[in-house]
Each structure stands twice: as structure tokens, then as C-alpha cells.
Predict the 3D structure of the following.
Amino acid sequence: MSFAKLLNRLFLGPRVTENKELFLQKDEELEAVGKELKSIINSLYGGRSLRIRAVDGGSTNAEEIELTALNNAYYDIDRFGLSFVASPRHADMVWVTGPVTRNLERAVKTTYEAAPEPCIVVAIGDGACTGGIWKDSYAVVGALEHVIPVHIKIPGNPPTPTQILRRILTALKESSVRS
Amino acid sequence: MATNFMTFGILLSLAGSVLSSLFSFISPKGKMHRVSLFLLALSSGSGTIAGVSFLLSGDSQWIILKSSWLFGAPLVLQTLSALFFVLLNMVACLASVYAIKYVEEYAHMYNVRVLDALMAIFVFGMQGVLLATSPFSFLAFWEVMSFSSFFLVMSDKENASIRAGLFYLIMTHLGAGAIMAGFLILSHGSLIESFARLALLAQTIPAPVLFGTFLLFLFGFGSKAGLVPFHLWLPEAHPQAPSHISALMSGVMLKMALYGFLMVVLSILPGVSTAGSLIVIVLGLLSAFYGVIYAVIERDVKRVLAFSSIENMGIIFTMVGVALFMQTQGQTAFSHVAVGAAILFTIAHAFFKSGLFLGAGVMVHAAHTRSLEAMGGIAKRMPTFSGAMLILILAAAALPPFSAFMAEWTFIQNLVAYLASMSFFVKGILTLVLVTMALVGGLALFAMVKLFGIGFLAEPRSEHIEHAHAPGKLLLIPIAVLSGLTILISLFAPFILHMIGFGDLAFMRAQQSAITVSGSSLSPSLIYAAFLLFVGIAFAMRLLTSNVKYERLYHTWDCGQPITSGMEYTATAFSSPIRFFFRMITRTQKRVRITPVIESNPWIARRAFSLELKQIWYDWLYVPLANAFLYTSTFVRKLQNGVIQFYIALIFIALVVTLTIAL
């Protein structure tokens, strides 16, 4: 009985997934940004991928969810030549989120010091860029700039994955033009 | 002429020791501290030079003091005793240099005047033991050595030291009593016969009595050398003494026991029975095995070294025992190689163990405690000192380029080569020796890795080490010299083995650049050359291949959390597998005590963990013996009833009984 119910549910029940057209539609913006990123990383880093170390500097975890999204099947930034690594020793970029709290100040600082030179520091989210709504609180140091030198700022609370990628792309473009 | 001059040098070293002692003793409040120690260093230095020139001269003996009115027999330096004489004087010289600064650091703890005086007398006693040629002078100097070291053990006047000192006194006097009894039996009741005459007299003694005498000597010298089960005083007494005294006791005094044993066995007793030699082997292996297990699990740096001494003396006695055993089997060549290996090991041990004890003094001074758990981080703060100690520790672990390894290699290589051609019984014994020595070698490496890894590396585990400074030159130089000597003797190991060809013990048929035993050979200079070559290649490769330009020094990646000493491996945890594996022997007891902070809530509690090490010999042998003594003494006490007539009657009975037996 229950098996028949299950079959009924599977084939005749209400649809719970997105509809097919929407699902197959490509995120044009993301794809465009990704393609450009891929080529610029390819030329800047000589064929290898750009390695990222993400540090939580006391964020609300909103930024972390966006960063996790970057790794999921939808965004899948590995195919653009970006990847997250487990140690700052392997990183080309350090991404910091959140207003740097006093407890995590040392962690942020040592991560930056442990990463090999040259290292691009990215402040992600309003917290890391300016201190956000925690600015001037006794518990935070404030914007990431007060702790370590920052090269790229991505404001937003939180910025979407595509926004993050776009900002990284423009920064890389600027630097490649300058050099 | 030159000989006379050098003889004078040895006399000078004797006189210098006495003079130094007197100087220190008569001066008020240790004002002459530096002068007396300097004098001791000079005199033992002259003793070293004289001893070395004796060894190089190739003479068989030098008569130092011909008609000795004091001891009835001349003082003579012979090849075997000269070897030990050089060892003693070298270590004494360096230890007295070390003591200059060391004692000043602890001037508030020790009575400097008495400490210096006793040290000089201690050295004098040991010098005398080596020069003595009659049982009387031998025992007299032996007692000088024992008594002075007894007081030296107690020099910080703490309860633990006094307890250890008394224990030591009892054991050493039981031993001295056994030695005296042995000499009395051999010489038919006269102590002023010379050793040469004793050897003649010994040939007339029936075999069972001779065996008994051998056992007496084995107990006497074995208890001094720290053989299991007469070893219990050693790990108590050596750590309690000041470090330079520990170095002398462990590095040299144990060798006096070995010297005495070798002298008695090789040149006085007409031959040792198979049973006797097997007992030596068993005691040697037991000491080596038991000593090394405790060296692995102990956490007190000086106790680790003391147990390592027991282990090393065990190995040396095993070698001597195998030599004696093979002598009874008619394998003279084998026996000579084994004695040579034992003596080479002795020389190596004298240097590295005294160096390690001197170093332990520096470590303890820096950490303010003897526990390894409070050390660590010394390597960063005292790099030169740690480098010297690393060499000594590697030597103590009997690793390849060092002479302890050469000795073991010579012995084991020879043993393996002979193994095939032996009878079943001999094969069994030799295999036992081989297997046990391999096990002991591995565990010794473990103990030494613990000593260096926990004691020197990583972050400091205590405030004191954090603020410690490198030791001064006067403390550092003796240790550095000893580590240099350790390398030097390993380079000259073939030469030394060649030189030990005294009398019928001439056995090394090889050139002096390599040790050759039964077909295979080992050349220390080649090993060093290869080692230097490999290090050179590694450095060159690094310089050539790596981009030094882009390198940047940075501390260990710590995941954002500061690395603290609480994350480090401790000595207890490091030795845990060994403790677990040998728990039958070590009888460790873990105790966790849980006391609730508030009575009503058992969940919030303080937990205290303690680990207790037991000594099975103490519980199973010494305590029952002591209880038996106490039990019998309750009966004997009934004789002491306070009635004087009864005492007079007892004396009368004793007199009558003695006369009946004597007449």
C-alpha cells in the first residue's frame, strides 16, 4: 500500500523542483564574468589556478554563506580557475569577512603574515570594509584596514557571489593593465 | 730521564689533590674556592699528561713510589690502570673547572669549603685505587673514595639526600666488606701481600672456595658499579649529589669498580668457572635491560642519566662476562676482542656520561627543577650548549659515528661471526646476549631521544627556562671539551683498541685506521668523511636549487591560535607505550583523584592525576630483607637487658668460643 503511495507521489504528485526551462537557463552574467576571470587568471598566473584562503574575522556568517555558495554546483568557481585552500601557506589571496573582532585580530594578522608574498587581501562585506553596524564597538577593531593592508574592498551586506567575482575581476584587470 | 719526569707528574697529581683539599679546608668560609679548584684542575691535568705519556711510551709499568712506608707495597702504574688513570684525571680536571662557577652559583646551598675539600679527597682516593698494588692500600684508597663520596652525596643537607647517602653508605660498605673478605681468603689472612703474590697464592686454593671468592668480588665490585639487583642506591645517590660530583661518580667512580673487577678477574684469579662467567653475563644483561627501561620512563633528568649509567655498566659487564665465558670455552681470541670492546665502551661512557651530568647541572640550574616536564626550549636559548649536549646524547644512544657504537659493533660483529661454529649451549647463550643487546640498544635510543626532544626542543614549559641565559664560559667549556673528546676517541677508536694490547691481550691484528673483526671492518675516519660529504652535498644542493632570494623566515603556522607549551609532547606521554609494554616490570600505578568542588554537585570536580613508578627489586628483595632483619633483631634485643654482669658473661663466652675456634 505504502509503495503504491510512494509511486503515486513520485510520478503524479505536485512538482517540488524548479521548472525545467528556468533550471536550464544559464546565468549569463556569471558565465561572462567567469569566462573573463578564467582568461585573466590564466594569463596572470601562468596556467595555474588562483588560490584563496578565507578567514572569518567575526562576521555574522552571511558572507560565509555566500562564499560557500561559490563552491556549490551552481557557481562552481573551480571551473574559472579559483579555489579555496586550507592553509594560508598555499594562498595567493586572503579573503576576510566581518569587522575584525578583538578575539580574531591575531588570527587575521597571522594568516596575512603566513601567506607568501605577493598576497592580495580582499575585504568582503560591509563589516570588513568599514566595520558596518559594529563600527566603534568596544569588541571590534573596526575595518580590516586597521589590521592589515587591504587591496580590494567588496561592500554589501552580504555581497552576492556574482558581485564578489565581478569585483575580483575588475581588480585583476586594473592590476594587469597597470603592470 | 723522561720517565722519571713523568713519574714525578703522577706524584704531583696525587700531592696536588691532597694539597687542594687542605687549602680548601683550612681557608675560612671558602675564600680559597677558586685557588683550590684551580690547583685540583692543574694536578689532574698533570696526571692526564703523565698517564698519556705512559700509554704512549709502551712500558709495561712505572713504579711511582718505591718503598711506601704507608702501605707496605709500592704504588705502580700499569697499562690497565693507566688507562683508567687518564680517564679519571681528564674528567676530574674538567669537572673541577666546571665546579668553579657551578659551586659559586649554589654557594648559598652548599658548604663550599667542605665541598671542595671533599671533592679533591674523592679524586685522590680514586687516583690511589688505581695505583695500589696490595689489598691493603687498595682497600684504604677505596674507603677514602667511598667515604668522601658519601659525604658529597649529602652535601645539600636535604632529607632526601641524607636518606640516599645513608643507603649508599650501607651498600658500598657491604660491597667493600665483600671485597675485603675476598682478598683475605685469597691471601690466607694477610692484607699486605702484593697483588702479584696474591695471584700465586690463589692457584693453591681449591675450586669451590675460589668460586665463592669470585662471587664475593662480583658482589663487592658489582654493588659499586650499580649492577642489578645491587643498584638501588645509584639512582638515589647520583642525582642528589651536586652535578660535578654526579659526573665524577657516574663517569669515573663506576669505572673504579670495573677496574677492580677486571684486575681481580684478569690478573689475580687463576680463571673463572663457566658458572661464574654465566652469572656475570646474566647480571650484566639484567642491569642493561632493567636500567634502560627506567631510563626511558623516568622524568627526572639526572635519574634518567643514572639509570642510563646502570644500563651502560650492564653492557660493559656483559662484554666482560662474555669474554670470561669464551675463555672457559677456549676461544681466547674472541675473549680478547670482547675485553677490548668493553674497555672502549668504558672510555666512551666515561666521557659522554660525565659530560651529560655536567650538562644536566646547567639544565637544572636553568629550570630550577630536575623534572624534564619543566624543561624544553633550551635549544633556542643556549644553542652552543645544546649542540655540545646533542653530540653527547647521540654518543650515549650508541649511534654510528661515536665510539660507544664502535665498541658495540666490534663486540656484536665478532659474536655473530663466531656464532655458527659454536656448540648448542654456547650458541644459546650468545644468542641471548645478542638479542638482549639489540633490544637494549633500541630502548637506549628511545631514552636519549626523549632526553633531547623533551629537554631541549620546542617551547619552554616553565617561566624559569623562558628567562634563562646561556651558561658562562667556565660552565660551557668543560662540556664542549667532553663532547669534543667523544668525537676524538671515536676517530681514534681503532688506535685505542690497538693500544689496549696489554700483555697477552694483544689481539688487534689490523691497521690502525680501521677496526677489523673477523673479516669485516669499520673505519671511523671513513664514516666521518662520508658524513661530512653528505652534509656538504645537502647544503650545496640547497644553495644551488632553492630560491633563497624569495625566502622569508616566519614562525610555524598555528591556525591563528598561539602555540603554547601545553600542546607539547610530555616526557610521561612519550614514554607511555614503553611503560605500558613493560608494565609487568615497572608496576606503574595511575591514580586519578576526583574531588567535587561543591558537595551536592558531583559533575563539577577537580581532577588530579598522579603516576607512581615502583621498583620491583625494592619491594620484592630489599623490603623483605629489611623486615627479616628487624624481626630477628627483636630477639637479639632481649640480650640488651641492662644487667652489666650479663654483658660480662657474654664477653667471656665470646672469648672462649673465639679461642676454641682459633686454637
Observations:
- The two ends of chain A are 71 Å apart (CA to CA).
- Strands of chain A lie at 50-56, 82-84, 93-97, 100-101, 120-124, 140-142, 152-154.
- The longest helix of chain A spans residues 161-178.
- The CA atoms of residues 124 and 135 of chain A lie 15 Å apart.
